[in-house]
Amino acid sequence: MLEVVTRDMMVNEIRELVELGHGSKDSGTQLFEKAMDSRPAIAFPPPVTAQWEEQIKRLYLLLTVNESAMDVPKNLEARRRITFFTNSLFMDMPRAPRVRKMLSFSVMTPYYSEETVYSKSDLDMENEDGISIKYYLRKIFPDEWENFMERINCKEDAEIFESDESILQLRHWVSLRGQTLCRTVRGMMYYRRALKLQAFLDMATEKEILEGYKAITIPSEEDKKSQKSLYAQLEALADLKFTYVATCQNYGNQKRSGDRRATDILNLMVNNPSLRVAYIDEVEEREGGKSHKVYYSVLIKAADNLDQEIYRLKLPGSAKIGEGKPENQNHAIIFTRGEALQTIDMNQDNYLEEAFKMRNLLEEFHEDHGVRPPTILGVREHIFTGSVSSLAWFMSNQETSFVTIGQRVLARPLKVRFHYGHPDVFDRIFHITRGGISKASKGINLSEDIFAGFNSTLRCGNVTHHEYIQVGKGRDVGLNQISLFEAKVACGNGEQTLSRDIYRLGHRFDFFRMLSFYYTTTGFYFSSMLVVLTVYAYLYGRLYLSLSGLERAIMKSAKAKGDTALKSVMASQSVVQLGLLMALPMVMEIGLERGFRTAMGDFIIMQLQLAAVFFTFSLGTKLHYFGRTILHGGAKYRATGRGFVVRHEKFAENYRMYSRSHFTKAMELFILLVVYQAYGAAATSSTAYFFLTVSMWFLVVSWLFAPFLFNPSGFEWQKIVEDWEDWSTWISNRGGIGVPANKSWESWWEEEQEHLQYTGLIGRLMEVILSLRFFCYQYGIVYQLRVSQSDKSIMIYGLSWIVILAVIMILKIVSMGRKKFSADFQLMFRLLKLFLFIALMATLIVLFQFLGLTVGDIFASLLAFMPTGWAILQIAQACRPAVKALGMWGSVKALGRGYEYIMGVMIFTPVAILAWFPMVYDFQTRLLFNQAFSRGLQIQRILAGGKKNK
C-alpha cells in the first residue's frame, strides 16, 4: 500500500518530501504543502490511465483480500500446479542466463486430422444416453464452469447462445479441456509469454519497471511502429529465441476440400502471430504434355487474417513412404530454428509457470553429465486425464510412475534411458546431422520415438532426465482406447526386437548396462509373454501328469515322505501370482510425491476398484500383440482417438476387439482348469485346488469379463437386449467387397487372418506346431472315457478321430443341403435333417447299451473334441492356399462361424444374467466413476440421461 501511495500518487520523490518536512520546522509549513515552485505535492485527482487503473485495483485487493494461510485454491489443479512449482524451486537446476544469452529453441507438434477446436454441433451432439460434451465437462469441472459463466457475464446457460462471441468462448473453453490442437498451441505459446516477461525484467529501466509490465504488453501505436521501443525489442527477442511449428500434414487437402479443421488452424495462426504451420502440398503439374503430381513442403503464417506462404520446397516424391507421424516430423524439421528442439505431441499441454524454467533446462546442455555431453534432455510428464474415470486413474498412476521414478532410475545410474517422453528436448544440431529425430521405415519403426534415443546412444550421445520441469500429457481414458494404445506399443516392441538397433546396442553395452537395457525395452514385453506362457506350460504339464497317472504316484510318494513344505510354498506362490508386486513402483512414486499414507490409501482404493483385473487384462493385450508381431510381423499404427469416454461399447464391438487376444485364450485356460479339476490327483481337497489354481482362475475371469466390467452401462438390461440383437445381426451378415468389419462377421474374420497372408513359411509352420497341443490334449482325455474300457491301444485314439470326422461330415452334409434344398425343396431338406437325427440317436443308443457309454463320457467328449475342432480350424487358416485349392474353404468358414457363435453365447450369458439384477449396474457405475463421485460428478444422472438436467 505504501508503494502505491508513494510511487504512483506522489509526484515528488520521498527524499525530497522528507527534506521539505525537515525544513518546515523553522518555516512552519506543512509536509504536503505546495512547494516553492507552486507544484502540488500530491496530484489528485490523477490522470486516468491503464497503469493507474491497474494500481487502484491492486490497492483495492490489498485492502479487501483476506490473506489467510488457511485459504487454499478451490480448484484441485491449481493446488497441484502451485505445489509442484514451489517444490521445484528447491530442486537442483542450473542458473538461468539472461534471455539474450540463452540457447534458442523450437517446438514442433505433428498433427494429422485430430480435433482442433470443437464446433458448436460437437458440443450439442449427444450420445445414446443423451449426454453432450458440454454437459459432461460441466459436471467434471464444476468450479471452472462457474468461473467461465462469471467471466462471460452470463447467469443462465441459454444466455451463452445469444451471441456469437459467447459461443466462440464456449467452444474454446471445452476445447481447452479436451485433447485438441487448440490446447497444445495455447500451452506451447506460454514459452513466448514467459520469454517476453523475462526479457522485460532483463532489459527494462527502473522507470519502465515502475510503470509495470502491462504498459509494455498493451503498447501505444507509436511503440508498435517504433523499432527502438522496448515493446519492439521484446517481440524481436522472443521471436529470435523461440519458434513454434505445427506440422499439419493434411492442411493443403483440408483447405481445398473446405474442411472445418483448416479454418480452425487458420484461426489459431491469426490468434497466435508467431505460430507457423508446415504442410505437404500436392499439386498437379503438366510437363511435356503429361500431367503428374508434384509434392512441396510448405511453411505458412497468418497475415491479414489469411495464410501467407513463407517457404516452398519441392520434394523428389511423396513424403509419406514410411510411417505417417515420423515422416510428418522429418519433412518439417528444416523449418525449425535454434540449437534445441522440443517435440510435443498432439495430446499435450503446458503451463506458464513451467515455461519460466525453460532457460534453466536449456543450460543443461552446458552442464557436466558424465563422459558424454547430453544430446536429449528428458522431461517429466504430468498426466492430466486421471480424474475422468477409474480406468483413467489407473493409467494415470501407472504412467506417472513410469515417467518419473522409472525414468529417473533409467537415466541415473543405469544410463539406459532413451527418448521415452514426447516433451524431451533434442540437441537439434546433433540430430539433424545424424538422420533426424525420427526413423520412418514402414513397420519396423512403428515406435518411432525410441529409435531417436537408440540413434543418439549409438552415435556417442547421452540421454538425461530432469524432474524440476514438467509438461502436461493426456492419456486414453476408455478401455478400448487403452487396449489400442497397448496393442500399438506391444507391436512396436515386437518390431524393435527384430531391428538392427537393438542388435548393435546389445553388442556394445557392458554386461550390467545390457541387463538394464533389456528389461527397459523389449525385455518387459518378453517377460510378460513368458508369464502367461508359464501358465500354459504349468497347466498342460499338470494335466499330462494327471492323465498319465504319474501325478497319483508322485503324490503317494510325497505323502509317505511328508509334503507340508510343498503346500506352504504353493500357498505363498499364489499370492505373488496375483501381481501385487507389479504395483510397487506406483506405490513408491505416490509415496515420494504425496506421502506413504496417501500412497497406501490410493493403493487400497485401486484394489477395491478392481485395478488388478484391469492390469491382468492389459497383460493379455501385451502378450497377444507382441507374440503375433514376433511370429508374423505386420505391425501397423492404430489410431486410438482422444475423445471423452462415457459411451457404452456394444457387445459386438468388444467381441471383435478382444476375441483373439483374450477370449479364445481364456476359454482354453478355462477348459484346462475344468479338466484338471475332474482328473487331477494333486488337488485332493478344495483348499489345495484353490491354492494351486486361484491365480489362473483370476486370469481367466479377468480376460473374459473385464471388457464388460469396465464398459459404461455394461450391465444395464436395455443395453444388453440391444447388444444381443446387434451381435446376432453382425454374425449372420455375409461379407463381400466393400463391406466393413463392423457390419459383417465374414469381413472381420478375413481381417483377423490378414497377418497370415503376409507371413513366411516359418510363421505358418509355427502356427501348425502350436495348434498340435490340442491333439495331445485330446489324446489324454480319450483314454479317460469309460467307453474305452481301460484299453490303452492306439485304436482308441484312431476311433476318436473317426467320430470327429463323422461330425464334420454331418455338418458338411447339412451345409450342402441348406444350399441346395432349403430354397426350393424344403421338404427334402427337413427329411434329410430327420434322417441324420435318427441316425445319431440310434448310434448313441447302441453306444449306451453295448459299449458302456455314460452321460459323463458325453461331456468329457465335448471337452476333448471342441478344442480339437478349433485346432483343425487354426491349421486350415495357416494352410489357407492348400485348403482353398481343395475346395474346403467354405466348410472352414462355416466351422469358424459356429465356433464364434458358441463362444459369443458362452460369454454373453453370464453378462445377461448379471444385468438382470439392478444392483450390479449400480455397483458397476460406482466402480467406474468413483473418482468423479468424490469430486461431485453426478454420474448416475449422466448415465440415466442428461437432457432433463440441462
TrEMBL record:
PANTHER family documented for this protein: CALLOSE SYNTHASE 5, LYST-INTERACTING PROTEIN LIP5 DOPAMINE RESPONSIVE PROTEIN DRG-1
One BP annotation, GO: (1->3)-beta-D-glucan biosynthetic process
Stored Pfam families: CALS1, Glucan_synthase
Domain of life: Eukaryota
Gene Ontology MF term list: 1,3-beta-D-glucan synthase activity
Domain Callose synthase helical: 1-65
Coiled-coil ranges per UniProt: none
Protein's name in the database: 1,3-beta-glucan synthase
Organism name: Lactuca virosa
Alphabetic keyword roster: Membrane, Transmembrane, Transmembrane helix
Transmembrane segments: 524-545, 565-587, 599-619, 688-710, 794-814, 834-852, 858-878, 899-921
Domain Glycosyl transferase: 72-157, 163-768
InterPro entries: CALS1_helical, Glyco_trans_48_dom
GO cellular component term of the entry, any: plasma membrane
